[in-house]
Design brief:
By secondary structure, this protein is α+β, with helices and mostly antiparallel strands. It folds into three domains: 76 residues, no CATH class; 109 residues, Rieske Iron-sulfur Protein (3-layer Sandwich), CATH 2.102.10.10; 189 residues, Naphthalene 1,2-dioxygenase Alpha Subunit, Chain A, domain 1. 28% of the residues lie in helices and 26% in strands. β7 and β8 form a beta hairpin. The longest helix has 30 residues. The chain is globular and about 75 Å long. Bound molecules: FE2/S2 (inorganic) cluster and fe (ii) ion. Fe (ii) ion binds next to α10.
Length: 409
C-alpha cells in the first residue's frame, strides 16, 4: 500500500517503473494548492489546526467556516481524503453486463469503470494517452473506447488496440500506451476504487470489506446491505454547499428532523434514535412509528442510516434501501447522487413506488434548502465556529475528527 505517499508520487513511481518518462509517456499533474496572499500550505495547515479533535464532544467547538469555504482546503481534502483509500463510486447494476461502463470525476481525476467481454471488472483513468482527450463519456455499453479526437482505440481491458496515423513514429511501443489502471473492487452491490494503490492485483474481494468498513463490515453485511434488491431509479442534485455541509446534515442524529421534516418526523420515533461509531463508519438507527392497518408504510419498523467516511451514505428502511454519494464539485458546491432499491415483492406496486419516491423527494428538497442556507451562513463574516449538541451530534463530531486526522497526517 502507498497510503503515506502523495498521489503524484505514486504515479511517478508507477510510470518510472513501467515506462521511462519521455515524450509521450504519461505524467501526472501535481495537485495544485493555490491561495492568494500566503503559501497555501501554511494557510490551510492553520485552518486544519483550528479544530482540536482532542477536546471532548461536550466542550468542543465545530470546525471553522474556512473548512467549508476555502478552495485550498478542498484541494487538501481531495489529495488526502478522496484520493487515498477505498472510495465508493457506483453500483454493480451500472456494470452488470459485459461491455457496460460508466464514467466519473473526483477532483481532477477522471475515471471510467467497465466490464470487459469476459466479465472482468476494470477501472482506468479516462484520459487518452495521445493528447489527453477524455475518452469515454457518460455511461452505456461499448466494445472498445475510441477517442473522439484522433481515433486512438482501447480495449475494455485498457490495451491500446489502435494508434491511428502513427507511421514514421520512433521509439513507440503500443504496450506502453494502454490506459492507466485504477484499483477497483466490489463490496455487496457497490463499486469501489482507490487511486493510491499501485499493486497490480485489480480486485480484492475478500479484504476490501474490512479495509473499507472496518469493524462495521459485519453489522452492515448482515443488517443493512442487501445485494439482491433491484435498482429502481437514480436522482442527482447539484447543491450550492460544500460537500461536508450535506454530510453534517446527515450526521446530526435526527436533530433537525422535527423542525425541518414535519412529515418524516411523524413516521419516526425520534426518542429511539441511537448512534454507533466505528473506525470510519457511523450508524444511526431509529424505530418507526407503527403504521395504521392499510396505511402507506414507506419506512417499515426500523430505519438504519449508515455513513461511510468520507461521503457515502446507505439508508435502509422498510422495503427500501437508498444510497447517497456526496461528490465535491468545488469548495461551495457538491453533487449528491441518490440511488433507490426496493424489495422484489413490491416491484409491481407502482403507486407505492411513486408515493415513496415523492415523499423522499420532499425530504431532499427540505434538506437542500437547509444545506444551502447553512452554506450562506458559513460564508457570512458573522460566523466562525459553532458548538455540538452532545446527546445527538456525536456522528458529526466523529466525521470531523476523521477529516482532521487525514488532513493533519
Ligand atoms: S487525444 Fe485521443 S487520439 Fe488524440
Ligand atoms: Fe434531513
Amino acid at each position: 500500500m502507498a497510503t503515506g505517499r502523495s498521489l503524484a508520487a505514486v504515479y511517478y513511481a508507477r510510470a518510472s517503473r513501467t515506462v521511462p518518462l519521455r515524450a509521450g509517456a504519461w505524467r501526472p499533474r501535481a495537485v495544485a494548492v493555490a491561495a492568494a496572499g500566503e503559501p497555501a500550505s501554511e494557510h490551510v495547515r492553520r485552518l486544519v489546526a483550528e479544530f482540536d479533535p482532542a477536546v471532548p464532544l461536550d466542550s468542543a467547538v465545530t470546525p471553522p467556516s474556512g473548512w467549508y469555504t476555502d478552495p485550498g482546503f478542498l484541494q487538501l481534502e481531495l489529495d488526502r481524503v478522496f484520493l487515498r483509500g477505498w472510495q465508493a463510486v457506483g453500483h454493480i447494476w451500472q456494470v452488470k453486463n459485459p461491455n457496460d461502463f460508466f464514467t466519473g470525476r473526483l477532483g481532477n481525476v477522471e475515471f471510467v469503470i467497465c466490464r470487459d467481454a469476459n466479465g472482468k471488472l476494470h477501472a482506468f483513468h479516462n484520459v487518452c494517452r495521445h493528447h489527453a482527450s477524455l475518452l469515454a463519456c457518460g455511461s452505456g455499453q461499448k466494445t472498445c473506447f475510441q477517442c473522439p479526437y484522433h481515433g486512438w482505440t482501447y480495449g475494455l481491458d485498457g490495451t491500446l488496440l489502435k494508434a491511428t496515423r502513427i507511421s514514421g513514429i520512433k521509439s513507440f511501443n503500443k504496450n506502453d500506451f494502454g490506459l492507466i489502471p485504477i484499483k477497483v473492487a466490489t463490496w455487496g452491490p457497490f463499486v469501489l476504487v482507490r487511486f493510491d494503490d499501485e499493486s497490480t492485483e485489480d480486485n480484492v474481494y475478500d479484504a476490501v470489506g474490512n479495509e473499507w468498513l472496518g469493524s462495521a463490515s459485519d453489522l452492515l453485511g448482515t443488517n443493512g446491505i442487501d445485494t439482491s434488491l433491484p435498482h429502481i431509479c437514480r436522482r442527482e442534485y447539484i447543491i450550492n454547499c460544500n460537500w461536508k455541509v450535506f454530510c453534517d446534515n446527515y450526521l446530526d442524529g435526527g436533530y433537525h428532523v422535527p423542525y425541518a421534516h414535519g412529515a418524516l418526523a411523524s413516521g419516526l420515533q425520534l426518542q429511539s434514535y441511537e448512534t454507533l461509531t466505528y473506525e470510519r463508519v457511523s450508524v444511526q438507527r431509529c424505530e418507526s412509528a407503527p403504521a395504521e392497518p392499510d396505511d402507506f408504510d414507506r419506512l417499515g419498523t426500523k430505519a438504519l442510516y449508515a455513513f461511510v467516511y468520507p461521503n457515502f451514505m446507505i439508508n435502509r428502511y422498510g422495503p427500501w434501501m437508498d444510497t447517497n454519494l456526496a461528490v465535491p464539485l468545488d469548495s461551495t458546491r457538491c453533487k449528491v447522487v441518490f440511488d433507490y432499491f426496493l424489495d422484489k415483492s413490491l416491484l409491481d406496486d407502482q403507486s407505492f413506488i411513486e408515493k415513496s419516491l415523492k415523499d423522499s423527494e420532499q425530504v431532499q428538497i427540505e434538506d437542500i434548502a437547509l444545506c444551502e442556507g447553512v452554506q450562506r451562513g458559513l460564508e457570512s463574516p458573522a460566523y466562525s465556529v459553532g458548538r455540538y449538541a452532545p446527546s445527538v451530534e456525536m456522528a458529526m463530531h466523529h466525521f470531523h475528527c476523521l477529516i482532521h486526522g487525514n488532513l493533519s497526517g
